[in-house]
Amino acid sequence: MKGIMYDLNIPKVVLKKVGLGRKFSMIRYRDDWPVPEIRHPTQIKVRTRIAGICTSDIHQINVNLPYSASILARRENPFPFGHEVVADVVEVGDNVTDLSVGDRVTHSPVAPCEAYGFALCPSCRNGHYETCRTLAGMGDGSQIENEYGGRGQFGGFSGGGFSEYFVAFAKQFTRVPPSLPDEIAVLAEPLSVSLHAVARNRPQVNDKVVVIGGGVIGLMAVASLRVLAPECRTIAIAKYGFQAEAAKRLGADDVVSEQSRERLYERIAARTEGALFKPKRGRKIVYGDSGPDVIFDAVGTDSSLDDALHLVRSNGKIVIVGMGFGTTKRTDWALQVYKQLTIRGSMMHGIETLEGERFGTMERALKIMEEDQEKFRNLVTHRFKIEDFKSAFRCGERKAKENAIKVVFDLRQSY
User: Fold this and answer.
1) Whole-model pTM?
2) Number of domains forming the structure of the chain
């Protein structure tokens, strides 16, 4: 089969880290990979229809994630790559009862305890599947661990959408509503990521909320705020006109596009009634209990984190959703202390509870998109065949030049 696998090879990682590795040395494309087979009765095999390129995929290719992220890597090598997927079920394991051959599904890269058959770990008991210990290769200590190779020999984030076929646990898949086109359904995974971030850090009524970043996660954060916190005021920071237009369509009350950081700060302060103060050296700082109440950083770079710390009001909150950084070098973390800030990270998606309602963010994402399809239409801007992977990943990296929002691999032509 055609497909792309990720090769987590330490010498290659070192070469990439020091700037000597080839551009695509961390991935392997072949048109003759063996078709994977179901190994456990709770797994299913799917055939990919369409798969989105996540910015985290590009970070993996460029090896600009921190070494600490390796505890969540798949144990086999090379391993299947690509987690934003719409696929058709082509085979089910003997113990699978909730999915059938022919179902169209989306995929979650997290396989929690329940998927393996383990007793629930503390995270899973709280609905925090995204921090399940199975991701780091730990089960419940029972004989079941041996079925997966023993402790430390299983786990990691799952993928495979950049191949014609892949296998994962049935519990990682959610059925797609029949009326939802593939090009919208492929956004379910990034939308569920942003729903998770907003649900865990839901702004108060009339809060002034800033979303940093006009990429897919930032746009999905805007959409999530419109659904889960409609009475807050949402201001999106988007660098480019095509991102600004999408942010407005998805529900932003205001969009700020400024290349000058000084003018950006002035505009955000003015729109949130914040007071800017100039230190002896460096950029101005919003200080005092006025200004943005909550900032969702959907970029997660050294620069965007520093901006968030400068712009959020004293006693406010920053939620880090983007993962564009490793170890920060220029971020002024002293502002966290001076301004008494709450800073929270948000990773993947799980089970949320709001106003007494308990829901899975993947299911909620599909429902939101099904009920308002027009809002999410045309966010897939570029389609590539899997064999054109170099052009596809370059397009995903050069969003500004290509006017790209979501870049996908389209494998439907091989059906």
Assistant:
1) 0.94
2) 2
